[in-house]
Amino acid sequence: MTNPSPTRFKVGLVQMRMTADPAANLATAAAQVQAAAQQGAALVCLPELFRTLYIGQREDHALFDLAEPIPGPSTEALGRVARDANVVIIASLFERRAAGLYHNTAVTIDVDGKVRGMYRKMHIPDDPAYYEKFYFTPGDLGFRACDTSVGPIGTLVCWDQWYPEGARLTALQGANILFYPTAIGWHPAEKAQYGAQQLDAWKTIQRSHAIANGCWVVAVNRVGHERLEPQAAGIEFWGHSFVCDPFGVVVAEAGERDELIVAEVDLTRIEEVRRNWPFLRDRRTDAYGGIESRFLTD
């Protein structure tokens, strides 16, 4: 007979800067996971593509060599950490599925060290310095909840943050918490004019997912000014990793530096919020035809 999932537990958010050395990044991530577990975290989430500098800054065929299979070296190393620390780990990886076929993939590793779930990023951006369509095939696993030792959770990745459909479909499968491993920041030339607005929009859209679905949301970003080429402007990753409750209340938030956040999640808050704000009850599932279309005209 399995033990029931806890209703209260702590989650760890590893906000870190990356180096050009994948092995060093993995070692840093592992140490931070262990530190979070020592502070009582039952689940720890790492930033998007934490093993490398953010590759989307340029289109370079040589960077495909950074990809790895799943299961593979990262899941094996983090699986050992998960077992030793008795903690669930969410890790975002550059997946080599086959020759010429790559994904931006989040894996969930349970306390036994085994991969319990896998999510391939569905929404792939293509913007200046975010040239992900060059590298990643859109996910084909759909939106899904994953059963873990702390109950059902959902993983989405970065650009997925802006799409209410992904959050809704994951929550409807029973996910108590939506996790968003992230790599988002400012173009340095735009920061003074648009930076505050961009950061506010990023937090607002994710808080809205928590409110609309009555679930917890955790976003884990990287930090640091990264340049793949010395002469390039690069990206200033803005950090601000945060946890918000099912009514969008931010209960913990990092700044713009390397930081480990450990925050308590109370799943009974889901019941409380949904009873008083019954958005799921009042959904008109009979009236949403057309949502699968790209755009509707008269």
3D architecture notes:
By secondary structure, this protein is an alpha+beta fold. It has one domain: Nitrilase/N-carbamoyl-D-aminoacid amidohydrolase. The strands form four sheets. Strands 5-4-3-2-1-17 form a six-stranded mixed beta sheet. A six-stranded mixed beta sheet has the order 8-9-10-12-15-16, covered by helices on one side. A three-stranded antiparallel beta sheet has the order 11-14-13. Helix 1 runs parallel beside helix 2. The longest helix has 23 residues.
Keywords:
single chain, 298 residues, alpha+beta, Nitrilase/N-carbamoyl-D-aminoacid amidohydrolase, 6-stranded mixed sheet, globular
Tell me briefly what this model is.
With 298 residues, this protein is of the alpha+beta class. The chain has one domain: Carbon-nitrogen hydrolase (Nitrilase/N-carbamoyl-D-aminoacid amidohydrolase). Helices cover 24% and strands 29% of the residues.
